[in-house]
Amino acid sequence: MFCLMLSITNLAIAQAQEGTVRYKKAEQPAAVIELPYPPDIIIEAMNEYLSKKGKSKATDIKGFKTFRNTEVLSTKTDNADLYFKIERKSRQDKETSFISLLLTQPKDQEEADKNLHYLNMEQAKTYLNELVPAIAAYNLEQNIIQQNKNVITAEAKHKDHKVEGEDLNRKKIDLEQRITQNNAQQQAHQATVETEKQKLAQLVSQRIP
């Protein structure tokens, strides 16, 4: 419960900021947001969500996840290519990622004035902020799917242990019955041993000195 509340709090305060992304030794302007999910979850979530907007899944272009012909803002009808850089926060923190949305296509420094700016900084930050609920929803569904698998696995193991327990209990009952039977046989044979010893003693007593 604490982890769930912490995750919700993190999402509540996660807001895109102005930033840059390094490309070919040059800094490119970008909106950046930090989210408490690993890169693979974010990429899968964006593939599912943005492919519906742009009718295509992400392709890797110059190290950026690119969504072609994507609806940029809900208030605009123009579509554009969107370039994202998705990176884990650090080697130590693999469950947190940075998403950077370029304002233009990836470009060399000398090409800066030749490229169309699809988004201004405020639009890019708004776009990233609007992605957060979709990513959170996707992550939740993945957790539900995984937890459902965990339940199925746990139930299967419980069933196996239950069957094994029933088998062991049957063996225990059978063993107890065999022990009881063996004890009775021991007592019966003990009497037989005594009888045979007596017969032996009688025969020995009949020896001529």
Can you describe what's shown?
The protein is rod-shaped and about 125 Å long. The protein has helices at 2-13, 39-54, 121-205; strands at 17-23, 26-35, 59-61, 64-71, 79-88, 97-102. It has one domain (2-151). The longest helix has 85 residues, at 121-205. The protein is of the alpha+beta class and 209 residues long. The chain has three helices and six strands.
Order of helical and strand elements: HEEHEEEEH
Structural class: alpha+beta
Determine the strand fraction and express it as a percent band. Answer: 15-25%
**Within the largest sheet, what's the order of strands?**
1-2-6-5-4-3
Total domains: 1
Overall mean confidence score, pLDDT: 82
> Total number of helical segments?
3
- Poorly predicted runs are 1-12, 109-117
Write the layout of secondary structure elements.
Layout lengths: L1 H12 L3 E7 L2 E10 L3 H16 L4 E3 L2 E8 L7 E10 L8 E6 L18 H85 L4
Descriptive key words:
209 residues, 6 strands
Concise structural overview:
The protein is of the alpha+beta class and about 210 residues long. Helices cover about 55% and strands about 20% of the residues.
